[in-house]
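[SOLVED] Need 3D model of a two-part complex

Original post:
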Amino acid sequence: MSMHRIVLTALFLLAGTAVALAASEADYKAAYAAADAANKEAGALRNQWTTTASMLAASKKAADAGDFDKAVDAAREAEELAKASIYQAKSEKELWKDMEIR
Amino acid sequence: MMTLRAAIRFGFSALALAALAVSLPALAADKIDPVADAKAFKKFFYEKFPKLKPEDFVNGPYSMDEGLHKQWVEKEEFPPYEFAVDLGKEMFTKPFKNGKTYEDCFPNKGIGIRQNYPLFDEKQGKVVTLELALNQCREANGEAPYNYVRDEMAALTAYMAFTSRGKPMDIKIPDDPRALEAYQMGKEYFYTRRGQLNFACSTCHVQSPGERVRTEVLAPALGIMNAMPIYRSEWNSMGTTSRRFVTCNSQTRGVPLTPQDDEYRNVEYYLSYVANGLPISGPGARP
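Solution:
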């Protein structure tokens, strides 16, 4: 195998992974739906975070601009934030008592 | 054989007794006791700030040190809330389209009654704050309700507070399990951490009164409702209790609830009850 060939093969391989890594609109829609569902659950617990809403908005904005990589990243972050707010709301059901002046 | 069975039985009864003994104090600790709560609440703040007189707490950050107290005395000479009181007075007596006024909705024509709010309305089965009562009055007389965080509501409550200045807060919890539950829910809200910053109301107003958050001096939770509504230099305008709760929530990166939602009315009920006996100082001015 000539040096030439090796470089070419490597380039093709790299291009292949890049295509595999780039997020599609479907990926964005799935990630956004998951984040939105988690945020709604936080809403039912009366404990949404403003940062979750900002990340959801950022995700939508990136998707509208066609940048689905960015949109998926933001949606995933929104989902993590929403999950943290759900955890907080649930654990505080008991933990608030530790703060009470008695 | 009999002895073994007897021993086992004895063992079980001993276990059951032990379990009972453990659960009894737990039950006692969970009992809702507003009188004991208010006593402990006041004791906490009186011990934390031994130099303050009880009635000083209602001046919020201005009670926290001598320099701030001087600022407050000077501010009171030309108080920034004066316009709101004048406007509120004018609005209060001006007839609605049907000829009635706010005076017709309240006991004693609405004068000197601010210390009784929020109250638990057994008919409605919920806590009714002064702000809610004012909008209910408007709606009962065919007028559109005011926005809870804006100037009109602040002006009306400022005037009503002004006519009640010096009167001791006098919140009642009627003998109704729903009232006790509302009180308890308010207490839970006050101590519950929320928002991405993981702050409860108590994080600032119990653990850190007198400390600074950036340039602001945090007010003690004791008597914090007595000064409402407030003129805030930071806002450059008057703010209602609703406005205060909503901004507190967003400052901790929590999405605020809707003004006058159950949680907000209940926490106002709790905070006002534990300040019973302290004078109304509203409308207040804050940095």
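Edit: The longest helix of chain B spans residues 2-30.
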